[in-house]
Amino acid sequence: MTEMDDTLLIQGGTLVIPDESIEGDLLVRGEKIQAIGKDLAAPGDATVIDAVGCYVLPGVIDAHTHIQLDTGVYQTSDDWFTGTRAAACGGVTTVLDFATQFPGQSIEAAVEARLIEAQDAVIDYGLHVMVTDLPPGREGELARLPALGTPSLKLYTTYRPNYYADDATILRLMETCAQHGILPLIHCENDAIVTAQTEALVAAGDTGWRHHGRSRPALSEQEAIRRVLFLAEVAGSRIHICHCSTTLSVALVAKARDGGQRATCETCPQYLLLDHTAYEDAEPWRYILQPPLRPPGEPNRLWSLVESNAVDMIVTDHCDYTREQKTAQDDFTRTPGGLPGLETLLTLSFTYGVAQRGLTLPQLVTLLSANPARLWGMWPRKGGLIPGADADVVIYDPRPKGTITAQALHHQAGYTPYEGWRVHGQVKTTIARGEIIYDGGNFTGRRGRGQFIKRSI
């Protein structure tokens, strides 16, 4: 489709609309969904797309990514064009990434700098703000976040000294978030436990990749979640817990929610599909991430919590470090943490959630599109096949069976933690605000066509 072709009629697919699936057609006019129904007439200027046998889904929203990440120690290899190109090829039409406030920088300057970096994005994007330097007396800067369209704040209970926030800081910033309608999202690992475990392994000479999981035990995650939930309750703040890797982590959030607290959580494909026996494989460097992989049995139990709606969304925590960066030293203390995952999110979630476990298509759409849009302030513009919404659409063909290989993917890493995994189905077409950006195995998007989405929670 060219920029002049502004009408699409997607015919004969199974449309997954909020809470149900229906057989029908979807009409796109310009950047918006115009109509949904059966046997819609094709306007004379329409490009007709045959979706018979396919699922027509709202574009995936990956609400936790790290594109063109600079931690001050490591830098990922991608940029906003290559990162969002990979996303588009996997059916992702919106990402929520992070604007890091570096020491000495204002919150507003951090957002402005990240927006400049993101100008080459192929798909739409929003930003959480990662606060690292906001001492007492400067909390008022957070009041600017809603006006900037970035009403969410990332905090860490670990990664000293770069990102770490102590309890007093977390409580102080949560109180400010509660005052201004800002939603904090927290990376939860007890820094003291992680530090002690790591130091013990270093002292014993056990720094090889295969020891990584031992350095960040599940207890460190679970304790930190319990603690920040309590701090959020005291502060009167909403709270979102990032990348839950254990069933107890999710259960703690669910218990708080059942008690009336405004608490939500996410998990990732790596925690639903992989376990710590991967560190015993020939290439444990593929699985260095924080939090690390957990014992066998945890993935199956996590899936059960996903199926029972205790988990609000599935995200990737995507970090596109290269094979060369990952394998530079067989030392988990000197290996960048994080896995590439943007392009495989939908296919893995469909294969191992819907095709193999019986997750329903509406549940899949809720986890990958609707809930991220609702929670992070983009609904109903994003997240659903609704007339008037942005025409972010994925046509997914469930019939082909294939294998994931790094060679066929579009990110920069040169590897995937899912090399050789069998999958059901594939993305046939990705449409972003009415424009076909991926079709039949070919990327057709344009550098810089993505827009910054100002969110309102």
Per DSSP, the total helix count is 13
Low-confidence stretches: none
CATH architect. name of one domain: Alpha-Beta Barrel
What percent of the residues sit in helical stretches (DSSP H or I)? 25-40%
Structural class designation: alpha/beta
- The N- to C-terminal Cα distance equals 34 Å
Strand content: 15-25%
CATH class of one domain, named Alpha Beta
What is the CATH topology assignment of one domain?
A: TIM Barrel
Number of strands: 19
Could you state the CATH homologous superfamily of one domain?
Metal-dependent hydrolases
Tags for this entry?
457 residues; alpha/beta; TIM Barrel; 9-stranded mixed β-sheet; 8-stranded parallel β-sheet; 13 helices; 19 strands; 23% strand; globular
